[in-house]
Design goal:
Elements: H1 2-24, E1 29-31, E2 34-35, H2 40-51, H3 53-67, H4 75-100, H5 109-134, H6 144-170
Antiparallel strand pairs: 1-2
């Protein structure tokens, strides 16, 4: 029950940060799904790293469902966008683990930065490939792929910096060698 409540709270935080980002950076929006600064990109990574893959995915997906009413798009496209949003950080972690043959160390700046770059590329590619296949109307301008990568990177950089500062200040739970759960 507590896990369910945590997922719902995280989903609401995700939706609120998305709406706050849209309000704060409205002048940097390329479309309703792309901004030159996108702070919720960090939450996607954070949820996967801290809550685990399944619970993180659920928090992102449910948060996306909360947001669906604010997008003017078919329900199937909206749901598929939520799936892409939840799967992208999982795929990025998988790529990092395969490349390095180990899990991400949350206390290592270089790991967090590398994961951020991988995530930003994977997220933009996954979304754009899905739009090409399912809803080409999502394409608004030529630079939107680059805008999504940069926006996700800047949003992640802000969040990762705050997370790293908190880890340095307060430490990690269970000592300093915490590995994110794989569930």
């Amino acid at each position: 029950m507590l896990e369910f409540i945590l997922i719902l709270v995280c989903a609401c935080v995700y939706a609120a940060v998305h709406m706050g980002n849209a309000w704060l950076f409205q002048w940097l929006e390329v479309s309703s799904h792309i901004s030159w600064v996108y702070l919720p990109a960090f939450l996607r990574l954070f949820y996967i790293l801290v809550l685990g893959r399944l619970n993180g995915f659920l928090a992102i997906f449910v948060g996306g469902l909360i947001l669906n009413s604010s997008f003017d798009e078919p329900t199937f496209t909206a749901i598929f966008n939520n799936v892409c949003s939840g799967l992208s950080p999982i795929l990025a972690c998988f790529c990092f683990e395969r490349w390095h043959r180990r899990r991400v160390q949350l206390s290592a700046w270089s790991d967090l930065l590398q994961l951020t770059v991988i995530y930003c590329l994977v997220n933009a590619l996954v979304h754009h490939l899905s739009w090409a296949a399912l809803d080409p109307s999502q394409f608004h301008e030529r630079l939107q792929l680059a805008a999504m990568v940069v926006g996700d990177f800047l949003g992640c950089l802000v969040g990762v910096g705050l997370m790293k500062a908190a880890i340095d200040r307060f430490g990690l739970p269970q000592g300093g060698s915490h590995s994110p759960p794989l569930n």
